[in-house]
Write a structure and sequence with these properties.
heterodimer; A: about 35 residues; mainly alpha; 1 helix; B: about 240 residues; Four Helix Bundle (Hemerythrin (Met), subunit A); two-stranded antiparallel sheet; 2 strands; about 0% strand
């Protein structure tokens, strides 16, 4: 696998999971409003 | 209605700016002489691992605060930080595995002390989060979790110094009190990403604590709050004292 793709996967997983967690927090907050 | 204050919004804005700058520096930093492009994973792997340490340190601090003050704010701090710490530990393990496969030939190796101790730390704090859910009474949950929150933090220095104490695939620390072994552009990218990830952590912690407070208030006023369901006492259990 090309090096850039491997690095891209690592970055996509990291920022993807962070965005997922932020989205989950905001959804739960909205449910409380 | 939950509304973020101006200070919170400022923190979120600053976080987004720092993340954008961190990404730019990480992707434009020169490739490593040996590991070439793979070395760019460093700029996310090291900050996520550092944040795991910080988050679990704050969990211990919150746990101690709860034991001294008996104020649920401290417990919310400990619980929120632990949840974020588990996320960052998971990310450190995942990015480490993706980096390790092409440069070391393995996704994960239990024989490596840092990988093994990080995996154990991840599982222990997953256990901490599970322990919090065993009891609906927030005071009981906080009492139990605080003990684990204080004891489990011994793993943080163990993981950090594992590369100095044992033979490891991981290198020893690159940034030491007497200077750094990294090239300046790479060091700059790493430091900016460290700042960005710290800001991400504090933004997440703030939001998670606001949510924890809102959820505990909702629980306190919900119709199933309190001791609506009481387990029946069996006669055998009552006779235990006489046996």
């Amino acid at each position: 696998m090309p090096e850039g793709v491997v690095v891209g996967i690592a970055y996509a997983i990291t920022y993807g999971l962070l965005v997922w967690y932020v989205g989950r927090l905001l959804l739960r907050l909205r449910r409380r409003n | 209605m939950i509304r973020f204050k101006v200070g919170h919004k400022l923190l979120f804005g600053l976080t987004l700016l720092a993340v954008a700058l961190g990404l730019l520096l990480a992707l434009t930093a020169p490739p490593d002489a040996v590991q070439r492009t793979y070395a760019r994973i460093l700029y996310i792997h090291v900050p996520t691992a550092w944040l795991a340490f910080l988050a679990f340190g704050i969990t211990a601090l919150g746990s101690i605060g709860w034991r001294i003050r008996k104020n649920l704010w401290w417990d919310r701090l400990a619980a929120s930080s632990a949840e974020i710490g588990v996320l960052f530990t998971g990310l450190a393990l995942l990015t480490g595995a993706i980096w390790g496969r092409p440069v070391w030939g393995v996704f994960f190796d239990w024989a490596d002390p840092r990988m093994a101790s990080t995996a154990v730390m991840f599982l222990v704090y997953c256990g901490y989060l599970a322990l919090r859910r065993f009891n609906v009474n927030p005071v009981v949950a906080a009492n139990r979790a605080s003990i684990l929150g204080i004891v489990a933090v011994v793993q943080v220095p163990l993981v950090y110094f594992s590369v100095n104490l044992f033979r490891s695939l991981h290198q020893t620390q690159s940034i030491r009190p007497d200077g750094s072994t990294m090239a300046p552009p790479m060091l700059r990218a790493l430091l900016v990403n460290l700042v960005a990830f710290n800001l991400i952590y504090f933004s997440l912690l703030l939001t998670r604590m606001i949510l924890a407070r809102a959820e505990s208030e909702a629980r306190a006023t919900s119709p199933i709050a309190g001791t609506a369901v009481i387990a029946p006492k069996s006669q055998a259990a009552e006779g235990w004292g006489d046996a």
